[in-house]
Amino acid sequence: xxxxFALYSFIFLLFVSCTSDQPxxxxxxxxxxxxxxxxxxxxxxxxxxxxxxxxxxxxLYNGLVEMSDSLTIQPSIAKSWNISEDGKTYTFILNNKxxxxxxxxxxxxxxxxxxxxxxxxSFNRLxxxxxxxxxxxxxxxxxxxxxxxxxxxxxxxxxHLEKTFPPFLGILTMKYFSVLPQEIVERYGEDFRRNPVGTxxxxxxxxxxxxxxxxxxxxxxxxxxxxNQLPYLDAVSVSFIKxxxxxxxxxxxxxxxxxxxxxxxxxxxVLTPEGELKNEYKKQFNIQxxxxxxxxxxxxxIDEKLPSVKDxxxxxxxxxxAINYGFDRKKMVMYLRKNLxxxxxxxxxxxxxxxxDESKVKGYDYNPDKxxxxxxLAGFPNGKGLPEISLATTEQYxxxxxxxxxQLAQFGIKIKIDVQKASVLSEAIANSKIxxxxxxxxxxxxxxxxxxxxxxxxxxxxxxFNYTHYYNPQFDILFEKSQTETNDSIRYRYYQQMDQLLxxxxxxxxxxxxxxxxxxxxxxxxxxxxxxxxxxxxxxxKINS
Length: 545
What we know:
By secondary structure, this protein is an alpha+beta fold. It has two domains: 33-234 and 523-542, Dipeptide-binding Protein, domain 1, CATH 3.90.76.10; 292-515, Roll (Dipeptide-binding Protein, domain 3). It has 16 helices and 21 strands. The strands form seven sheets. Strands 13, 14, 15, 18 and 19 form a five-stranded antiparallel beta sheet that branches. It has a four-stranded mixed beta sheet with strand order 1-12-9-8, with no helix packed on it. The two termini are 46 Å apart.
């Protein structure tokens, strides 16, 4: 009996010990949680095309350089760099204390040191358009050079360009240009997309596609904040609830720490008509807003060689200008977006980029008299005889399209709204099947060239992103000049001249310049953002309640 009693006592003490220790472990572990409604398709940087993929990849990998919150380029794995006087040779000196994540396929299962040769492999991999769409971003490299990417020693990486291209350093901040371990990538092949190994502040733990993704702290991360090694968080957890209401309810209940974007936020519930956080939520959440390098617009296909355009009234510049003048952007942003964004009454280039200047690029604002005058000049006084115009959009932007439809109707401009699935619409636009469409452009890197390249004639779709098939020799000359101009003031002047030409010719209807909008729980500290809407969690702290 004494032996039996002793055994029961031991089991009881073991049970009490385990159950009392377990909550303590959970309470002290800090996990940043967010939901991704769109879903992640790959954890390979070569596939970092969408925000969803980019956000996840940014936690796992580093490149040579990165973008600060103020959009300045700062060191990452490259501790310094030099650009030759002719702007064609970039030499990067690497931090020699950067290691890949520990992995079973490395010797002794320990992550090895990153070398310049790893960057040679990683960049050459991007030249294969079957691997990545980043190939087009490397158009400036010198293919005639024996080695466009070169490791002169373990800590020196050199890039040779064919011609000067000032935005190139900014392009290298994109997650495509992260460093990868060749032996791991080749061991997994296509399955590397779900077995990532990088150098970032977090390392891969598990991924149940469509359900849950978990990263854990990289204990060997090379970056510090003062004397503190980053990151502060123990883990990052991503859920994939597609329903907006369910996802937002989880945020209100504290099950996730952040929601991002107006499409993920129940604005009527938590925001005032002015876009401010309602008083009852100010103790629970913080709201973060700032300019977003994103322009939402309506596009016209204006290639008159196409039969669909040849017989369309949209081939007339006066009609396109009339549509631009025919609705109130300020009211649109106020009522449909709760002032989250800025009415696009200047050019296509958004605020947040250096050349943006409303005093130098004059766009369109609501002007009924101009609409009537332009309709008369086009041969359709008060809209009489003007055929119905079809506007293609998605369900997500139906309310916006209906607002524009209603405003234009008062001038006799009849709009028919064609709602399509996003994937179907994107393909139709890319293949010149749609004459009038809603679209947006998010900056891939913080340079105006990225926005204006949508209207360069050599980028006509389907091979490029010039969906409108805009062609203007004067625009093309300025665009080519700007690509090699190293004087910022002169280059910005070129950008403004191109933007004004674009607005005057009206192949697009700029609608609004978007904003980064985030709601964040009060127990989260150190979460910042930039105008690229990048999610960086390496300096984030969470106070468990």
